[in-house]
Every structure is written in C-alpha cells, then in structure tokens.
Write a structure and sequence with these properties.
This protein is of the alpha/beta class. It has two domains: about 100 residues, no CATH class; about 160 residues, no CATH class. It has seven helices and 13 strands. It is globular and about 60 Å long. The relative contact order is 0.11.
Length: about 300
C-alpha cells in the first residue's frame, strides 16, 4: 500500500511540475545509438546508427540516420538519408531535394516534398495538408481526450523508463511469451479494477488510481507493440524506441478509427475504440501482473 501511495504521489507531483522541469529539454542517448529528446529540438549533424525520437520538439536531419525518425508534436526536416521510416504526429514533414527515405513517410499534419526528394516506401498523409477538420464537437472532444491521455502515457512512460530502465528491459526480453495467458490475466484484472472503481466511485482516490492503472498498462502495451514492430527491422532496439514506436502506432490506429468511421455511425466508432482500448489495457495490465506475481 505504501508503494501504491508513493506511486500516486509521484504521478501527481510529476504532472504538476512537468513544464518547469523540462523547460530546457531532456535528451537521452542509448547504447544502441538511439537519440530521444523531450521538449527540445534535435539537429543531426553526425551519422546516427539508431533511431531519432523527439517529443514536443523539431528534428533536423543533416546527416545519415540508419533507423527511424519520429516526431510527436514537432516538425521533421530531412536533408539527408534516413534508412527507416519518417513519422510525424501532429506536425509538419519537410523533405528537401537532398532527402532520401528508405521506408515510409507517415504524417499526421502536412507534408512538403521538394523536387528531387526520394521516398522508397509509401507516403501516408492523415488529416491532409490542414488541421482544420470538418468534424463534430463530439469527435473533437474524443480527439482532445485521446491527445491528453497519449501525452500522459508518453511523459509518465519516459519517466518510468529512466527510473526503472533495467526492470523494463528484462520485461521486454520475454514480453512476447505466453501472450494468451497475459491477455486473460489482464482482462480479469481490468474487470476487477473496474468493479472496484464503481464501488468506490464516490471517493477521489478511486478515479485517480484507475487512471494510473490505465496509464501504466498503456506504457507496457506500447513496449510490446513497439518491440513487435521493430523486430522486423532489427533484433536490438532500445526500450525507449520500443515504447515510443508502440505508442505512436497505437495512436495512429485510434486516429484511423476516429476519422475513417463515418460521423453518423457514432455507436460503431465508439464500439471500435472501446474494443481497441480494452485490448490494450488488458494486455499491458496482464504483462504487469504476470511480472509482479506469477514470475515470483
């Protein structure tokens, strides 16, 4: 119980002081050559062997990158070669005449491609050239909640990985084993937590605890999906790259469900999103529960 209270306190304090703490930005480099930046711009002037990930910051590629380039709430300008994918979530992607992208270019925002720029993969644009969407207030509300929750998962996830990197590296090594058992364990755990929330809904601690559970389960699920995706490119990826890649992929899937389903089919859209969320929460929670109890 003391550990749970400490975790809740850490979560609350961290969310309150996030902006001043990261006012100057945080840059993390992994042993695999990855570069992860939070609230800071990245300018690549030397070859990078791993992936480049920026959150709330811009990326300028002026030297070769052998991995992926991902920017969340930031712009990516490619002036050199990128072996993997270029993914921009709520930002602008600019491919200059010297740009060469070996993978896909996925953009939630705008894409500017100069004459001479080459993309060997596919060019995927979501939301088109403009962020001015002709959607209902209800969809805007769902989009706002999704963005806020994703940011919470991103910030808390990076903090947890910095503090408990060794622990989550061990989880990542065998995260794909017995996935059916983990999913079943997660479904039962999520069901129990939901029932407990309903019983204690009048208290303030219950909703906060439930949100913490959803955030933590999303962190673990993101690591799982990120590892699943990245292993097709390389067997050795940093835990940060797996986490951010998985989180971006999950967010892209939710956005596709949000905008691809006709607005007059609100129930269908809600049902699909709920199914995806339940699967993600159950999987992440199951991985956590198995590691916490069954492994012992």
């Amino acid at each position: 119980m003391k550990k749970l209270f400490s975790l809740l306190l850490l979560f609350a304090v961290f969310m309150l002081i996030t902006i001043p703490i990261f006012a100057e930005g945080v840059v993390i480099s992994s042993e695999n050559g990855d570069r992860v930046s939070l609230i800071d711009d990245i300018s690549i002037t030397k070859p990078v062997m791993g992936n480049v990930i920026s959150v709330l910051g811009n990326v300028s590629v002026n030297s070769k990158i052998n991995g992926q380039v991902v920017a969340v709430f930031g712009d990516i300008t490619v002036n050199e070669e990128v072996s993997g994918q270029v993914v921009t979530v709520f930002g602008n992607t600019i491919l200059t005449q010297n740009a060469l992208v070996g993978g896909d270019v996925i953009t939630i925002g705008s894409l500017t491609k100069d004459e001479g720029a080459k993309v060997k993969g596919q060019e995927v644009r979501i939301l088109g050239e403009s962020m001015n969407l002709d959607i209902s207030a209800f969809v805007y509300l769902r989009l706002a909640i999704m963005i806020l929750f994703t940011l919470a998962v991103l910030i808390v996830g990076l903090l947890i990985l910095v503090i408990s990197k060794e622990k989550y590296n061990k989880i990542s090594q065998h995260i794909e084993k017995d996935i059916g058992r983990k999913l079943l364990l997660g479904v039962l755990s999520l069901l129990s937590a939901s029932i407990l929330l309903l019983l204690l809904l009048v208290t303030l601690i219950a909703p906060l605890l439930y949100i913490v559970i959803l955030v933590l389960s999303s962190v673990t699920a993101s690591i799982y999906f990120g590892r699943l995706i990245l292993r097709t490119f390389s067997q050795k990826n940093s835990i940060y790259t797996e986490f951010v890649t998985g989180l971006v992929s999950i967010t892209l899937l939710k956005l596709l469900l949000l905008f691809m389903v006709p607005q007059d089919e609100l129930l269908l859209g809600l049902a699909l999103v709920v199914i995806v969320d339940l699967f993600i929460y159950s999987l992440g929670l199951g991985i956590q529960m198995e590691e916490r109890y069954l492994k012992k």
